[in-house]
Amino acid sequence: MTATPFELDIAAQADALLAFADAPVPSGLDRLADPVVDRIVFTGMGSSHFAALPTWRLLVAAGLPAWWVDTATLLDTPQLVSGTTLLVATSQSGASGEVVAALDALTPRLTVGITNDTGSPLARHCDVLVPLHSGSEATVSTKSYLNTLAAQRLVATAFGGYPADVADAAAAVRRIVPAAQLAEAARGWQRAPHRRSSGTTITPLPPSTPA
Questions:
Q1: How far is Cα 187 from Cα 121, in angstroms, rounded to an integer?
Q2: How does DSSP classify residue 135?
Q3: DSSP code of residue 119
Q4: Mean pLDDT score across all residues of the chain
Q5: Residue 46, Ramachandran bin (φ over 0: left; ψ between -120 and 50: alpha; else beta)
Q6: b/e map 164-177, b = 16+ CB within 10 Å
Q7: Is beta strand 110-115 parallel, antiparallel or unpaired with respect to 128-131?
Q8: CA gap 127, 148 in Å, rounded
Q9: How many domains does the chain have?
Q10: Residues 6 or more apart from 82 whose CB is under 8 A from it?
Q11: Residue 211 pLDDT more than 60?
């Protein structure tokens, strides 16, 4: 059976991660530790925004003044961004409407742009560019989402002590991407209890039935 374009993108995730790992380290990451910065705001829309959640949690756990606000909400509350704010904006295309509007409306001290399109409005506007190096995608975000997680981890390293380990992650992805192994990993996730840091066990939902 011929693989679909979506399946081909899934199969290419490990190579995309390795492309990110092998790319030069983005210049300017050392600027993120600017002592004048008194607030770090992570923003984006959809999956691009959710990819920043682990980084935000890391920084909050470290006691840093970090916020995680989707860009539509940020446009309604522009007071969150001032001349002493570090803004980390994530957009796979670099051209989502809300992000472009925020670039025009907000005046942070420093903007970090995480995007796959180095010619996009976000890439042109930001002070520090973190390219995803994930290549084109046939359907929904697959390679770019995984690479965005890696890019967010790289941003976290600028605040101290968070190893990126992207090459190791690529090796792990390569081990589970074959269809049978990926399906087994999904079944294992469904069977396993999911625990929050508080220790509360979340019971997986049973498979849904057709309506």
A1: 40
A2: -
A3: T
A4: 83
A5: left
A6: bebeebbeebeeeb
A7: parallel
A8: 18
A9: 1
A10: 39, 107, 108, 109
A11: no
- Whole-number pLDDT of residue 205: 40
151 touches 114 (CB < 8 A): yes
Residues 72-88 as b/e (b if ≥16 CB within 10 A, e otherwise) read: eebbeeeebbeeebbbb
Domain presence at residue 54 = yes
pLDDT in tens, 60-96: 999 999 999 999 999 999 999 999 999 999 999 999 9
**58: CATH:** 3.40.50.10490
Tell me if 74 is assigned to some domain: yes
pLDDT of residue 52 exceeding 80: yes
Which residue in 85, 81, 80, 40 sits closest to 58, CA to CA? 40
How is residue 191 written in tokens? 């069977």
User: What confidence score (pLDDT) does residue 159 get?
Assistant: 85
Reported residue count of the chain is 211
What are the pLDDT digits (tens) for 166-191? 666 666 666 655 555 555 655 665 67
DSSP state of 3: P
State which residues form the domain around 33. 5-175
The answer to whether residue 208 sits within a structural domain is no
Of the chain, the end-to-end C-alpha distance in Å amounts to 29
Q: Is residue 196 part of a domain?
A: no
Residue 208 in this model has a pLDDT that exceeds 60: no
d(CA 178, CA 47): 24
